[in-house]
Amino acid sequence: MSGYQLYYFPIRGRAEMARWAFAVAKIDFEDVRLSGEEWAKEKASGRAPFGQMPFLVTPEGKVLAQSGAIMKYICKKGGMSPSDSFDEALADMIHDGVYDLRNDLSKGHHEKDETKKVELMTKFFLTTLPERLGKFEAILKSRDEGKGFFFGDKLYYFPGRGRAEMARWAFAVAKIDFEDVRLSVEEWAEEKASGRSPLGQMPFLVTPEGKILGQSGAIMKYICKKGALSPSDSFDEALADMIHDGVNDLRNDLAKGHFEKDEGKKKELMTKFFLTTLPERLGKFEAILKSREEGKSFFFGDKLTYADISFVAFVNGIKVSIDNQKAKGNPTPDIDELIGKYPLLVAYINRVLAVPEIKTWVEKRPDSEF
Ligand SMILES: N[C@@H](CCC(=O)N[C@@H](CS)C(=O)NCC(=O)O)C(=O)O
Q: What is the structure's pLDDT at 2?
Protein backbone atom coordinates (compact mmCIF):
# COMPACT_ATOMS: atom_id res chain seq x y z
CA MET A 1 0.00 0.00 0.00
CA SER A 2 1.50 3.32 -1.09
CA GLY A 3 -0.59 5.33 1.36
CA TYR A 4 -2.55 7.44 -1.13
CA GLN A 5 -6.21 7.96 -0.27
CA LEU A 6 -8.67 9.24 -2.85
CA TYR A 7 -11.95 10.51 -1.37
CA TYR A 8 -15.16 10.62 -3.41
CA PHE A 9 -18.78 9.54 -3.46
CA PRO A 10 -19.54 5.85 -4.28
CA ILE A 11 -19.72 6.64 -8.02
CA ARG A 12 -17.36 7.19 -10.96
CA GLY A 13 -18.06 10.91 -11.61
CA ARG A 14 -15.15 13.31 -11.27
CA ALA A 15 -12.90 10.83 -9.46
CA GLU A 16 -12.80 8.14 -12.14
CA MET A 17 -9.97 9.61 -14.20
CA ALA A 18 -7.73 9.72 -11.10
CA ARG A 19 -8.55 6.04 -10.46
CA TRP A 20 -7.58 5.19 -14.08
CA ALA A 21 -4.35 7.18 -13.67
CA PHE A 22 -3.48 5.25 -10.47
CA ALA A 23 -4.16 1.97 -12.30
CA VAL A 24 -1.99 2.80 -15.35
CA ALA A 25 0.77 4.25 -13.15
CA LYS A 26 0.61 1.01 -11.11
CA ILE A 27 0.37 2.99 -7.86
CA ASP A 28 -1.71 1.42 -5.08
CA PHE A 29 -4.30 3.72 -3.51
CA GLU A 30 -7.21 3.55 -1.14
CA ASP A 31 -10.44 4.23 -2.99
CA VAL A 32 -12.36 5.88 -0.15
CA ARG A 33 -16.08 6.17 -1.09
CA LEU A 34 -18.11 8.27 1.34
CA SER A 35 -21.89 8.20 1.80
CA GLY A 36 -23.77 11.52 1.96
CA GLU A 37 -23.68 11.43 5.79
CA GLU A 38 -19.99 10.58 5.94
CA TRP A 39 -19.22 13.38 3.52
CA ALA A 40 -21.18 15.89 5.62
CA LYS A 41 -18.93 15.02 8.59
CA GLU A 42 -15.76 15.07 6.49
CA LYS A 43 -16.70 18.42 4.95
CA ALA A 44 -17.31 19.88 8.41
CA SER A 45 -13.75 18.85 9.41
CA GLY A 46 -12.46 21.42 6.89
CA ARG A 47 -9.86 18.99 5.45
CA ALA A 48 -11.04 19.24 1.82
CA PRO A 49 -9.41 22.44 0.44
CA PHE A 50 -12.54 23.66 -1.43
CA GLY A 51 -15.07 21.71 0.63
CA GLN A 52 -15.56 19.43 -2.38
CA MET A 53 -14.72 15.89 -3.48
CA PRO A 54 -12.67 14.37 -4.98
CA PHE A 55 -9.70 15.17 -2.84
CA LEU A 56 -6.45 13.27 -2.41
CA VAL A 57 -4.41 12.67 0.73
CA THR A 58 -0.78 11.76 -0.05
CA PRO A 59 1.32 9.37 2.05
CA GLU A 60 2.99 12.46 3.57
CA GLY A 61 -0.42 13.82 4.63
CA LYS A 62 -0.55 16.57 1.99
CA VAL A 63 -4.03 17.28 0.64
CA LEU A 64 -4.94 18.09 -2.97
CA ALA A 65 -8.30 18.98 -4.49
CA GLN A 66 -9.66 19.50 -8.03
CA SER A 67 -10.12 16.35 -10.10
CA GLY A 68 -7.88 17.56 -12.95
CA ALA A 69 -5.03 18.60 -10.66
CA ILE A 70 -5.20 15.23 -8.87
CA MET A 71 -5.21 13.24 -12.11
CA LYS A 72 -2.31 15.23 -13.59
CA TYR A 73 -0.29 14.82 -10.39
CA ILE A 74 -0.67 11.02 -10.55
CA CYS A 75 0.03 11.00 -14.30
CA LYS A 76 3.25 12.94 -13.75
CA LYS A 77 4.36 10.33 -11.21
CA GLY A 78 3.54 7.57 -13.72
CA GLY A 79 5.37 9.23 -16.63
CA MET A 80 2.07 9.90 -18.42
CA SER A 81 2.47 13.63 -18.98
CA PRO A 82 3.93 15.15 -22.15
CA SER A 83 7.34 16.65 -21.34
CA ASP A 84 7.37 19.27 -24.11
CA SER A 85 5.70 22.46 -22.82
CA PHE A 86 3.50 22.94 -25.90
CA ASP A 87 2.37 19.30 -25.76
CA GLU A 88 1.58 19.74 -22.08
CA ALA A 89 -0.59 22.76 -22.94
CA LEU A 90 -2.25 20.73 -25.70
CA ALA A 91 -3.02 17.93 -23.23
CA ASP A 92 -4.49 20.61 -20.91
CA MET A 93 -6.58 21.94 -23.80
CA ILE A 94 -8.04 18.46 -24.36
CA HIS A 95 -8.65 17.91 -20.65
CA ASP A 96 -10.26 21.37 -20.24
CA GLY A 97 -12.44 20.68 -23.30
CA VAL A 98 -13.67 17.51 -21.61
CA TYR A 99 -14.20 19.49 -18.41
CA ASP A 100 -16.50 21.94 -20.26
CA LEU A 101 -18.56 19.00 -21.53
CA ARG A 102 -18.74 17.47 -18.06
CA ASN A 103 -19.98 20.80 -16.64
CA ASP A 104 -22.64 21.09 -19.35
CA LEU A 105 -23.86 17.56 -18.62
CA SER A 106 -23.88 18.11 -14.88
CA LYS A 107 -25.94 21.31 -15.33
CA GLY A 108 -28.71 19.20 -16.89
CA HIS A 109 -28.18 16.38 -14.40
CA HIS A 110 -28.60 18.61 -11.35
CA GLU A 111 -31.50 20.72 -12.74
CA LYS A 112 -34.54 20.36 -10.47
CA ASP A 113 -37.17 21.79 -12.87
CA GLU A 114 -38.18 18.81 -15.05
CA THR A 115 -39.02 20.89 -18.19
CA LYS A 116 -35.75 22.76 -17.98
CA LYS A 117 -33.87 19.49 -17.34
CA VAL A 118 -35.31 17.93 -20.55
CA GLU A 119 -34.41 21.09 -22.47
CA LEU A 120 -30.81 21.10 -21.12
CA MET A 121 -30.31 17.35 -21.66
CA THR A 122 -31.72 17.50 -25.20
CA LYS A 123 -29.41 20.37 -26.05
CA PHE A 124 -26.45 18.51 -24.56
CA PHE A 125 -27.06 15.18 -26.31
CA LEU A 126 -28.36 16.47 -29.66
CA THR A 127 -26.20 19.56 -30.18
CA THR A 128 -23.28 20.20 -27.78
CA LEU A 129 -21.93 16.64 -27.50
CA PRO A 130 -22.05 15.69 -31.24
CA GLU A 131 -20.49 19.03 -32.22
CA ARG A 132 -17.73 18.68 -29.65
CA LEU A 133 -17.05 15.00 -30.51
CA GLY A 134 -16.42 16.15 -34.08
CA LYS A 135 -13.85 18.63 -32.75
CA PHE A 136 -12.14 15.97 -30.64
CA GLU A 137 -12.01 13.64 -33.65
CA ALA A 138 -10.40 16.40 -35.75
CA ILE A 139 -7.75 16.96 -33.05
CA LEU A 140 -7.06 13.21 -32.86
CA LYS A 141 -6.81 12.99 -36.67
CA SER A 142 -4.23 15.80 -36.66
CA ARG A 143 -2.08 13.65 -34.33
CA ASP A 144 -0.48 10.92 -36.45
CA GLU A 145 -3.77 10.43 -38.36
CA GLY A 146 -5.43 9.22 -35.14
CA LYS A 147 -3.65 5.87 -35.36
CA GLY A 148 -2.51 5.88 -31.73
CA PHE A 149 -3.42 8.02 -28.74
CA PHE A 150 -3.41 11.84 -28.60
CA PHE A 151 0.32 11.60 -27.83
CA GLY A 152 2.67 8.92 -29.14
CA ASP A 153 5.74 6.98 -28.06
CA LYS A 154 8.32 8.62 -25.78
CA LEU A 155 11.99 7.94 -26.37
CA TYR A 156 14.26 8.81 -23.40
CA TYR A 157 17.96 9.61 -23.87
CA PHE A 158 20.62 12.17 -23.07
CA PRO A 159 20.70 15.39 -25.16
CA GLY A 160 22.77 13.75 -27.91
CA ARG A 161 22.61 11.41 -30.86
CA GLY A 162 24.54 8.43 -29.40
CA ARG A 163 22.66 5.18 -29.04
CA ALA A 164 19.23 6.78 -29.51
CA GLU A 165 19.74 8.27 -32.95
CA MET A 166 18.94 5.14 -34.94
CA ALA A 167 15.55 4.87 -33.18
CA ARG A 168 14.88 8.53 -34.09
CA TRP A 169 15.69 7.80 -37.75
CA ALA A 170 13.42 4.75 -37.60
CA PHE A 171 10.55 6.86 -36.24
CA ALA A 172 11.13 9.43 -38.99
CA VAL A 173 11.16 6.89 -41.84
CA ALA A 174 8.21 4.95 -40.37
CA LYS A 175 6.35 8.30 -40.16
CA ILE A 176 5.44 7.69 -36.52
CA ASP A 177 5.20 10.74 -34.27
CA PHE A 178 7.23 10.40 -31.08
CA GLU A 179 8.33 12.51 -28.19
CA ASP A 180 12.09 12.97 -28.14
CA VAL A 181 12.67 13.28 -24.39
CA ARG A 182 16.24 14.48 -23.68
CA LEU A 183 17.25 14.25 -20.02
CA SER A 184 20.11 16.14 -18.37
CA VAL A 185 22.50 14.11 -16.18
CA GLU A 186 20.60 15.30 -13.08
CA GLU A 187 17.20 14.41 -14.57
CA TRP A 188 18.56 10.99 -15.54
CA ALA A 189 19.79 10.36 -11.99
CA GLU A 190 16.23 10.93 -10.74
CA GLU A 191 14.69 8.84 -13.53
CA LYS A 192 17.18 6.02 -12.97
CA ALA A 193 16.38 5.99 -9.24
CA SER A 194 12.68 5.54 -10.10
CA GLY A 195 13.55 2.10 -11.53
CA ARG A 196 11.41 2.63 -14.61
CA SER A 197 14.16 1.97 -17.18
CA PRO A 198 14.26 -1.85 -17.46
CA LEU A 199 18.08 -2.15 -17.40
CA GLY A 200 18.82 1.14 -15.65
CA GLN A 201 20.11 2.62 -18.90
CA MET A 202 19.07 4.94 -21.68
CA PRO A 203 17.76 4.89 -24.31
CA PHE A 204 14.44 3.46 -23.23
CA LEU A 205 11.06 3.70 -24.89
CA VAL A 206 7.65 4.18 -23.28
CA THR A 207 4.81 3.22 -25.63
CA PRO A 208 1.46 5.02 -25.54
CA GLU A 209 0.06 1.97 -23.71
CA GLY A 210 2.69 2.43 -21.00
CA LYS A 211 4.83 -0.56 -22.04
CA ILE A 212 8.56 -0.01 -21.56
CA LEU A 213 11.47 -1.24 -23.67
CA GLY A 214 15.22 -0.89 -23.16
CA GLN A 215 18.24 -1.59 -25.41
CA SER A 216 18.81 0.68 -28.38
CA GLY A 217 18.79 -2.14 -30.97
CA ALA A 218 15.58 -3.74 -29.66
CA ILE A 219 13.88 -0.33 -29.69
CA MET A 220 15.00 0.47 -33.24
CA LYS A 221 13.94 -2.94 -34.56
CA TYR A 222 10.54 -2.65 -32.84
CA ILE A 223 9.90 0.68 -34.59
CA CYS A 224 11.25 -0.68 -37.89
CA LYS A 225 8.86 -3.64 -37.70
CA LYS A 226 5.94 -1.23 -37.26
CA GLY A 227 7.17 0.80 -40.26
CA ALA A 228 7.82 -2.25 -42.52
CA LEU A 229 11.57 -1.54 -42.38
CA SER A 230 12.63 -5.09 -41.51
CA PRO A 231 13.57 -7.80 -44.00
CA SER A 232 10.77 -10.37 -44.18
CA ASP A 233 12.91 -13.42 -45.03
CA SER A 234 14.39 -15.03 -41.90
CA PHE A 235 17.94 -15.31 -43.30
CA ASP A 236 17.83 -11.68 -44.41
CA GLU A 237 16.64 -10.69 -40.95
CA ALA A 238 19.62 -12.53 -39.41
CA LEU A 239 21.89 -10.78 -41.94
CA ALA A 240 20.45 -7.39 -40.95
CA ASP A 241 21.12 -8.36 -37.29
CA MET A 242 24.71 -9.28 -38.24
CA ILE A 243 25.20 -5.81 -39.74
CA HIS A 244 23.58 -4.07 -36.77
CA ASP A 245 25.63 -6.11 -34.25
CA GLY A 246 28.79 -5.33 -36.23
CA VAL A 247 27.98 -1.63 -35.93
CA ASN A 248 27.34 -2.10 -32.21
CA ASP A 249 30.81 -3.65 -31.74
CA LEU A 250 32.31 -0.55 -33.37
CA ARG A 251 30.18 1.73 -31.19
CA ASN A 252 31.37 -0.10 -28.06
CA ASP A 253 35.03 0.17 -29.17
CA LEU A 254 34.62 3.91 -29.72
CA ALA A 255 32.82 4.34 -26.37
CA LYS A 256 35.72 2.60 -24.58
CA GLY A 257 38.09 5.32 -25.82
CA HIS A 258 35.56 8.08 -25.28
CA PHE A 259 34.99 7.24 -21.60
CA GLU A 260 38.66 6.48 -20.74
CA LYS A 261 39.81 8.86 -17.98
CA ASP A 262 43.59 8.31 -18.35
CA GLU A 263 44.65 10.69 -21.14
CA GLY A 264 47.54 8.48 -22.36
CA LYS A 265 45.35 5.40 -22.53
CA LYS A 266 42.56 7.38 -24.18
CA LYS A 267 44.89 8.52 -26.96
CA GLU A 268 46.08 4.95 -27.48
CA LEU A 269 42.51 3.58 -27.68
CA MET A 270 41.32 6.36 -30.00
CA THR A 271 44.33 5.99 -32.31
CA LYS A 272 43.74 2.24 -32.51
CA PHE A 273 40.06 2.81 -33.24
CA PHE A 274 40.49 5.42 -35.98
CA LEU A 275 43.66 4.06 -37.60
CA THR A 276 43.08 0.30 -37.36
CA THR A 277 39.68 -0.96 -36.19
CA LEU A 278 37.43 1.46 -38.09
CA PRO A 279 39.24 1.31 -41.49
CA GLU A 280 39.48 -2.49 -41.33
CA ARG A 281 35.81 -2.80 -40.44
CA LEU A 282 34.68 -0.27 -43.06
CA GLY A 283 36.39 -2.51 -45.64
CA LYS A 284 34.34 -5.44 -44.35
CA PHE A 285 31.10 -3.47 -44.51
CA GLU A 286 31.93 -2.38 -48.06
CA ALA A 287 32.55 -6.00 -49.06
CA ILE A 288 29.15 -7.02 -47.62
CA LEU A 289 27.47 -4.16 -49.46
CA LYS A 290 29.24 -5.12 -52.73
CA SER A 291 27.95 -8.68 -52.37
CA ARG A 292 24.41 -7.25 -52.38
CA GLU A 293 23.61 -6.24 -55.97
CA GLU A 294 27.09 -4.73 -56.38
CA GLY A 295 26.26 -2.14 -53.69
CA LYS A 296 24.06 -0.17 -56.08
CA SER A 297 21.20 0.25 -53.63
CA PHE A 298 20.70 -0.48 -49.92
CA PHE A 299 21.81 -3.64 -48.06
CA PHE A 300 18.50 -5.27 -49.07
CA GLY A 301 17.93 -3.90 -52.55
CA ASP A 302 15.47 -1.03 -52.83
CA LYS A 303 14.04 -1.71 -49.38
CA LEU A 304 15.54 0.48 -46.66
CA THR A 305 15.89 -1.59 -43.47
CA TYR A 306 17.26 -1.24 -39.96
CA ALA A 307 20.63 -2.50 -41.25
CA ASP A 308 20.94 0.73 -43.27
CA ILE A 309 19.61 2.90 -40.46
CA SER A 310 21.99 1.35 -37.90
CA PHE A 311 25.10 1.64 -40.10
CA VAL A 312 24.56 5.10 -41.55
CA ALA A 313 23.29 6.68 -38.29
CA PHE A 314 26.52 5.49 -36.63
CA VAL A 315 28.90 6.72 -39.37
CA ASN A 316 27.03 10.04 -39.63
CA GLY A 317 27.19 10.36 -35.83
CA ILE A 318 30.98 9.96 -35.78
CA LYS A 319 31.31 12.51 -38.57
CA VAL A 320 29.22 15.12 -36.74
CA SER A 321 31.17 14.55 -33.48
CA ILE A 322 34.48 14.94 -35.32
CA ASP A 323 33.26 18.08 -37.12
CA ASN A 324 32.30 19.54 -33.71
CA GLN A 325 35.79 18.79 -32.35
CA LYS A 326 37.42 20.26 -35.47
CA ALA A 327 35.37 23.47 -35.09
CA LYS A 328 36.83 23.80 -31.55
CA GLY A 329 40.37 23.48 -32.97
CA ASN A 330 40.99 20.05 -31.37
CA PRO A 331 43.19 17.55 -33.29
CA THR A 332 40.87 15.10 -35.06
CA PRO A 333 41.13 12.25 -37.55
CA ASP A 334 40.05 13.12 -41.08
CA ILE A 335 36.88 11.06 -41.33
CA ASP A 336 36.12 12.11 -44.92
CA GLU A 337 39.55 10.88 -46.00
CA LEU A 338 39.06 7.70 -43.99
CA ILE A 339 35.65 6.85 -45.47
CA GLY A 340 36.69 8.26 -48.86
CA LYS A 341 38.82 5.15 -49.34
CA TYR A 342 35.56 3.21 -49.77
CA PRO A 343 33.77 4.84 -52.72
CA LEU A 344 30.97 2.30 -52.71
CA LEU A 345 30.26 3.11 -49.07
CA VAL A 346 30.44 6.88 -49.71
CA ALA A 347 27.80 6.63 -52.46
CA TYR A 348 25.69 4.34 -50.29
CA ILE A 349 25.88 6.61 -47.22
CA ASN A 350 24.80 9.58 -49.37
CA ARG A 351 21.94 7.48 -50.77
CA VAL A 352 20.66 6.71 -47.28
CA LEU A 353 21.13 10.35 -46.16
CA ALA A 354 19.06 11.42 -49.18
CA VAL A 355 16.00 9.39 -48.09
CA PRO A 356 13.57 12.34 -47.66
CA GLU A 357 12.48 11.52 -44.08
CA ILE A 358 16.11 11.00 -42.96
CA LYS A 359 17.24 14.19 -44.73
CA THR A 360 14.46 16.19 -43.03
CA TRP A 361 15.24 14.71 -39.60
CA VAL A 362 19.00 15.36 -39.91
CA GLU A 363 18.30 18.98 -40.93
CA LYS A 364 15.89 19.69 -38.10
CA ARG A 365 17.38 17.63 -35.22
CA PRO A 366 18.87 19.59 -32.31
CA ASP A 367 22.63 20.25 -32.43
CA SER A 368 24.54 18.14 -29.95
CA GLU A 369 28.11 17.38 -28.92
CA PHE A 370 27.86 13.60 -29.36
N1 LIG B 1 23.49 -1.96 -24.82
C2 LIG B 1 22.77 -0.81 -24.33
C3 LIG B 1 23.77 0.18 -23.76
C4 LIG B 1 23.09 1.35 -23.11
C5 LIG B 1 24.07 2.32 -22.45
O6 LIG B 1 25.26 2.04 -22.25
N7 LIG B 1 23.53 3.51 -22.13
C8 LIG B 1 24.29 4.55 -21.51
C9 LIG B 1 24.26 5.82 -22.38
S10 LIG B 1 24.92 5.57 -23.96
C11 LIG B 1 23.66 4.91 -20.18
O12 LIG B 1 22.49 4.72 -19.96
N13 LIG B 1 24.46 5.48 -19.27
C14 LIG B 1 23.98 6.00 -18.03
C15 LIG B 1 23.87 4.98 -16.94
O16 LIG B 1 24.19 3.79 -17.12
O17 LIG B 1 23.44 5.41 -15.86
C18 LIG B 1 22.00 -0.17 -25.51
O19 LIG B 1 22.42 -0.29 -26.64
O20 LIG B 1 20.93 0.43 -25.25
A: 60
